[in-house]
Amino acid sequence: MGSETQTQLPVTEKIPVIERVLEYVLFKFRWVFVVFFLLPVNIVYEAYFSVRNWIVFKLNSAPKAHSRKVAVIQKQIADWNKNGRTRKMCTARPGWLTMSFRTPKYKQQLEQIKTNQLVDILEIDKENGTVRVEPMVSMGQLTKYLLPLGYTLPVVPELDDLTVGGLINGCGVESSGRKYGLFQHTCVSYEVVMADGSLVVASKDKAADQSAENQALFYGIPWSHGTLGFLVAATIRIIPCKPYVQLSYVPCNSLETLTKTLEAESNNRENEFVEGLAFSKSTGVVMRGKFSDNPPKNGVINAIGRWYKPWFFTHVKAILDRNEIVTEYIPLRDYYHRHSKSIFWEIQEIIPFGNNWAFRYFVGWASPPKISLLKLTMPKPIKNLYERHHVLQDMLVPLSQLDQAIKVFDREVEIYPVWLCPYNLPSAPGMLRQRSGRNILYVDVGVYGTVTKPDYRPRETTRRLEKFVRSVEGVQMLYADTYMTRAEFWEMFDSSLYEWLRVKYGCKDAFPDVYDKVSKAARD
Ligand SMILES: Cc1cc2nc3c(=O)[nH]c(=O)nc-3n(C[C@H](O)[C@H](O)[C@H](O)COP(=O)(O)OP(=O)(O)OC[C@H]3O[C@@H](n4cnc5c(N)ncnc54)[C@H](O)[C@@H]3O)c2cc1C
Ligand SMILES: NC(=O)C1=CN([C@@H]2O[C@H](COP(=O)(O)OP(=O)(O)OC[C@H]3O[C@@H](n4cnc5c(N)ncnc54)[C@H](OP(=O)(O)O)[C@@H]3O)[C@@H](O)[C@H]2O)C=CC1
Ligand SMILES: CC(C)=CCC[C@@H](C)[C@H]1CC[C@@]2(C)C3=C(CC[C@]12C)[C@@]1(C)CC[C@H](O)C(C)(C)[C@@H]1CC3
């Protein structure tokens, strides 16, 4: 790692021509490998896990197996304590499975606690409106299980392989956030194995048998990235849902209209879902949605998740080009996973012809390749190329600062589409900085794609973006590259509760500090 002030050379000056050619060829023809090898592997992989999950579900073995699985984790921690706490701990989840461009380098130096058996949905409590799940349960698994029962999670982050553990210990955001907040705000309690091996229940509301400290732990877990304890189960709210989302697309032709429309729709209590896609500094589409039982006779049903349907963002762009408000009815599961098929818009660089009708009709059902498999098989030259030219960032800023944020991103990287996802941020303790005493609307500004600006420097440009975000009381999502120093990091996040919990629960010599897990130096 270089020093903070180090100036980077123009990216291409440092790279030998032969390497650049190799990178280019591999990048251009990655689709051959993906289409002819990865997609077939994908099918086998998916089939294996659906059969396995079906058997577990039918045998109803999961709830019975849970305490045995927790005991296995407690035993590992007891052994680690007995052996003198020589190294700090993390989960043994392999790096290629994690939903980030990076692999966690820090895991090599740490004691890896095996939590990978915790993959099951434990119980649904319709009366109290909750579901209890193990942390490796994925969003795809949960929507498949809950929707046929007429229930859903209030916030369903859209990529199928995102896990409950990752979303709680990191952060999860989705278009229902304007009503329900972040994923963490929909949770009721966490079951956590602490550094001393004890199992603690940390709940939002203090139960009769529960100490106030454990309640504080509830607020400390989100964003802590597994540095307070190991999550072994979470109880999450569920809400009744309907089979369709009535979705209206509102094209906007100036930055002002876009931001004002997004704000107005976010403040409109009738909307269950609000999201925006900016296609340039001055054009975009705001989408507002609500649950619907039955599309009316003349209503347009659009099952956007079907294999032959175009990528969702291209559908939205076509509506912008037509410049008219469109309303359609989308099956709920298709809506939730609307960005999965095109991995937002990342798939266009991996399978450039993936939106061609012939590809969609004949091979679309096998697509997209799993992100984890793509990651596992990514050759080093492609990684280098992404490293130098690709931006993957989500910045969470107050909605009132959105026009500023779009201008800053446009000046620095000029990548479109930009994902705009408003959410409500309550004033509550924890690592998130917001102590106004009232709810504030924030917006996730998600920028994913190749930057063509000649003066782009990954480190310096990102540091400028981070500085802007700190200046408006925003935060960066930590699956992405963060180039902040430790001091800057704790300027962005609130360390008070976190540090107190780290001392209280004996975490200091048990888990690394969160900064040492998420900073660029800790990840490859
Ligand atoms: C994208 C993805 C989605 C998945 N979804 C599901 C799903 O929905 N349902 C499901 O049941 N499974 C799912 N799995 C599988 C699950 O996450 C684990 O990979 C699997 O349970 C362990 O398989 P393995 O023995 O091959 O582990 P390996 O990959 O060989 O091991 C990974 C790590 O876990 C440790 N480990 C292996 N076995 C144990 C054990 N018994 N106890 C403690 N530690 C152990 C290993 O030492 C290693 O450190 C999914 C996997 C992937 C990649
Ligand atoms: N729409 C959205 O909101 C999206 C969110 N994301 C991001 O992706 C990440 C989730 O990805 P995913 O692959 O599921 O998770 P990861 O494996 O990336 O885990 C994220 C962090 O949570 C910790 N963690 C995970 N499970 C546990 C557990 N059981 N106990 C303690 N700590 C745990 C991990 O610790 P350790 O390092 O020890 O394994 C890691 O630091 C989140 O950070 C999220 O912000 C990405 C795309 C979309
Ligand atoms: C808050 C929200 C909605 C975040 C969305 C983030 C996604 C767009 C990110 C998460 C993981 C991610 C970084 C990833 C990639 C693209 C952008 C993703 C999907 C890809 C698929 C790009 C191509 C790369 O070769 C590789 C396969 C390593 C990565 C894997 C992770």
Q: Bin the strand percentage.
A: 15-25%
* Quaternary class: single chain
Ligands bound, unique: flavin-adenine dinucleotide, NADPH dihydro-nicotinamide-adenine-dinucleotide phosphate, lanosterol
Global shape = globular
Q: What's the total count of β strands? A: 17
Radius of gyration: 23 Å
Mean pLDDT: 92
Number of helices: 19
Pfam family, one: FAD_binding_4
Domain FAD-binding PCMH-type: 57-241
Catalytic activity: lanosterol + NADPH + H(+) = 24,25-dihydrolanosterol + NADP(+); 5alpha-cholest-8-en-3beta-ol + NADP(+) = zymosterol + NADPH + H(+)
Membrane topology: Single-pass membrane protein
Account of the protein in words:
With 524 residues, this protein is of the alpha+beta class. The protein contains 19 helices and 17 strands. It has helices at residues 17-28, 30-59, 62-82, 139-146, 164-169, 177-180, 212-220, 255-267, 312-322, 332-336, 347-350, 357-363, 371-376, 380-389, 402-412, 458-471, 486-492, 496-504, 515-518; strands at 89-91, 111-113, 121-125, 130-133, 151-152, 187-193, 199-203, 230-237, 239-240, 244-252, 273-278, 284-292, 326-331, 390-398, 418-425, 440-450, 475-476. A hairpin with a 5-residue loop joins strand 11 (273-278) and strand 12 (284-292). Helix 15 runs antiparallel to helix 16 (458-471). The radius of gyration is 23 Å and the shape is globular. The N and C termini lie close together (11 Å). The site of lanosterol (LAN) has 19 residues, from helix 13, helix 14, strand 14 and strand 16.
